[in-house]
Amino acid sequence: MRGAAPAPPRYHGRPMGLEAALPTDSVVTTQLNRVINWARRSSVWPLPFATACCGIELMATACSRFDLARFGAEVMRFSPRQADLLIVAGRVSVKTLPVLQRIYMQMAEPKWVISMGACASTGGVFDTYAVVQGVDQYVPVDVYVPGCPPRPEMLIEGIMAIQRIIDQDNIPRDPTGKRLPLNIALTPNYELRPQPVPLGIGTSNMQGMPLRG
Ligand code: SF4
């Protein structure tokens, strides 16, 4: 015999959660694809490849003030096989590059890459023989987050951009079915703006800074 449906959880007297929006004794039907996309975008597990000062902003993103957990992506993993979002935060030396490539190859599919900050995307001010002048020459980058360093909000915007692509199942592939990098460059953001900001696969809104072809 079915018992009475449990009362929805409340916060300061107001109902909260999905149970507040939907009757708890009803059935919801949807497409399997939508459920899979929803689960994937709600449980992105990042692997922080933080090699320099950008890593401090990355850490701040997970702290209470910015609270990456709001987007289901706070479970930082240092085991590549348990991660699906590689965040390259900081400059990468030529000596470290094979480690980055190996980590990327060991990550679970479908996997995503964020290049966080000027150093990861272009080498930044370190125009030397010892520093990789853009990690996108060696691993496919999905989102470029600008700044030196980018603020935590900027990184969150990059993660949300990937989440929106996952949600829409709008993953570009070549004729052989191989996934292509999203190639999204975010606009530098110095003030809080309502989400979602406009973005498109393979586009850049950064004036005078075309993406690498
Ligand atoms: S982009 Fe700036 S903050 Fe980030 S690692 Fe390079 S120098 Fe440091």
Give an account of the 3D structure.
The protein has 213 residues and is of the alpha/beta class. Helix content is 26%, strand content 11%. It is built from six helices and seven strands; from the N terminus they run ββααβαβαβαβαβ. It has helices at 18-21, 32-41, 54-62, 97-106, 117-122, 152-168; strands spanning 10-11, 14-15, 46-50, 85-89, 112-116, 143-145, 184-185. Strands 3-4-5-6-7 form a five-stranded parallel β-sheet. Strands 1-2 form a two-stranded antiparallel ribbon. The longest helix has 17 residues, at 152-168. The chain is globular and about 70 Å long. The site of iron/sulfur cluster has 11 residues, from α5.
Topology:
Layout (H helix, E strand, L loop, with lengths): L9 E2 L2 E2 L2 H4 L10 H10 L4 E5 L3 H9 L22 E5 L7 H10 L5 E5 H6 L20 E3 L6 H17 L15 E2 L28
Parallel strand pairs: 3-4, 4-5, 5-6, 6-7
Antiparallel strand pairs: 1-2
Helix pairs in contact: 2-6, 3-6
The protein binds iron/sulfur cluster (SF4).
The site of iron/sulfur cluster has 11 residues, from helix 5.
Can you give me a brief rundown of this structure?
With 213 residues, the chain is an alpha/beta fold. The protein has helices spanning 18-21, 32-41, 54-62, 97-106, 117-122, 152-168; strands at 10-11, 14-15, 46-50, 85-89, 112-116, 143-145, 184-185. A hairpin with a 2-residue loop joins strand 1 and strand 2 (14-15).
